[in-house]
């Protein structure tokens, strides 16, 4: 009989890592929470609604938006979101996604853009506009921001946006940069992105439109900026106004190369 | 008419995981509007899931279920190509049915 001697391998388990759980930061916790929610992100519902609205013949002219030029030619939706805001020759204006959609809704469908712009968020056609924005952004999911920014009008808008971003005012002497101008800032337990450069600018700008779990609402970038101004105790900017587009231009250009994850989910 | 649901059904290891996202306000009946008037309850009361026409899951829901509800469950023995259908009814008598194919 052969005598075989087995040497039991000794496994040393390093359990020092157990301490890591106790050190999990609030940011990790929020990231985990978002990952759990992302599996059933209700923004998909708005995406489906927006896709239907895009193809449906509506408005006084009973036309769909399928001929709408979002910057990449009539009807091209894919990749349009990551190149907005941009200059449009037909309106001779720099426009963001929402203001461009308003132009299309007016010229193609016969809606009154001014009426929709003055409608409160979450009511009537504003809801449809948010759904359309959600659909358009979703078509560019995973693509990288690459705003053209090569005309004088666009460069001027960027410069205006930059100045607005750093302009302090209001009862609290706040500016966008008070919270979003450097790394490592937070509000309560949530980290705030530094929007002056990547990755913060791409992550921040590329997350809206987003579904907000806390109030069950879908928010477009226009509403996001409107609420930023509310929090700063500034007067509300008008929907689709140059102020909001200039800021969008500044954030979008700063986020160049960043990946678009919109429509995202927020707490 | 109610907005469509999003249904995803994926087969793995002899079962299929179904994920459903429903568009519904799910108003509890506990809230008041700006004028102080109670907002009437409006929520899903019954859900039914079928696999190739056979009922595999039923549920009675109430006001505690969140807005735009998400439901996930596993259907034993479901394979690619099978049909999964979801139906909900709410307390206003509205209902909606959507179907998806297991992939």
Provide key terms for this protein:
heterodimer; A: 267 residues; mainly alpha; Cytochrome Bc1 Complex, Chain D, domain 2; three-stranded mixed sheet; 42% helix; 7% strand; B: 103 residues; mainly beta; Immunoglobulin-like; four-stranded antiparallel sheet; three-stranded antiparallel sheet; 7 strands
Give a written overview of the molecule.
The complex is a heterodimer of chains A (267) and B (103). With 267 residues, chain A is mainly alpha-helical. Chain A has helices spanning 19-22, 26-38, 43-55, 97-107, 113-117, 124-138, 152-166, 176-180, 200-205, 221-231, 242-254, and strands at residues 86-88, 93-95, 186-187, 190-191, 210-212, 217-219, 264-266. Chain A has a 3-stranded mixed sheet with strand order 6-5-7. In chain A, 42% of the residues lie in helices and 7% in strands. Chain A starts with 18 loop residues before the first helix and ends with a strand. The two termini of chain B are 28 Å apart. Chain B has one domain: Immunoglobulins (Immunoglobulin-like, Sandwich), CATH 2.60.40.10. Chain B is mainly β and 103 residues long. Chain B is elongated and about 55 Å long. At the A-B interface, α3 of A face loops of B.
């Amino acid at each position: 009989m052969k005598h075989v001697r087995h040497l039991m391998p000794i496994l040393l388990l390093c359990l020092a890592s157990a301490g890591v759980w106790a050190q999990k930061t609030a940011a990790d916790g929020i990231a985990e929470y978002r990952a759990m929610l992302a599996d059933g992100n209700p923004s998909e519902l708005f995406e489906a609604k927006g896709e239907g609205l895009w193809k449906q013949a509506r408005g006084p002219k009973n036309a769909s938006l399928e001929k709408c030029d979002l910057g990449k030619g009539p009807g091209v939706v894919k990749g349009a979101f990551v190149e907005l805001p941009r200059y449009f020759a037909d309106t001779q204006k720099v426009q963001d996604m929402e203001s461009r959609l308003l132009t299309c809704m007016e010229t193609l469908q016969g809606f009154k853009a001014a009426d929709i712009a003055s409608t409160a968020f979450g009511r009537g056609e504003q809801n449809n506009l948010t759904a359309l924005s959600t659909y358009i952004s979703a078509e560019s999911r995973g693509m990288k921001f690459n705003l053209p920014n090569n005309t004088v009008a666009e460069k001027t808008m960027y410069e205006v946006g930059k100045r607005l971003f750093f302009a302090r005012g209001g009862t609290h002497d706040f500016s966008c940069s008070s919270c979003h101008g450097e790394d490592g800032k937070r509000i309560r337990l949530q980290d705030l992105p530094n929007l002056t450069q990547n990755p913060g600018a791409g992550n921040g700008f590329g997350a809206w439109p987003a579904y907000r779990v806390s109030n069950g609402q879908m928010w477009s970038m226009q509403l996001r900026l409107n609420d930023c101004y509310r929090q700063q105790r500034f007067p509300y900017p008008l929907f689709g106004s140059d102020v909001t587009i200039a800021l969008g231009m500044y954030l979008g250009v700063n986020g160049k190369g960043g990946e678009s994850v919109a429509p995202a989910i927020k707490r | 008419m109610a907005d469509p649901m999003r249904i995803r059904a994926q087969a793995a290891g002899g079962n299929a995981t179904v994920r459903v996202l429903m568009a519904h306000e799910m108003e509890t009946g506990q809230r008041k509007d700006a004028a102080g008037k109670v907002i009437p309850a409006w929520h899903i009361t019954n859900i039914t899931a079928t696999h190739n026409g056979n009922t595999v899951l039923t549920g009675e829901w109430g006001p505690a279920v969140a807005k735009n509800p998400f439901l996930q469950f596993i259907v034993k023995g479901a394979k690619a190509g099978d049909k999964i259908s979801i139906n909900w009814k709410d307390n206003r008598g509205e209902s909606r049915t959507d179907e998806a194919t297991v992939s």
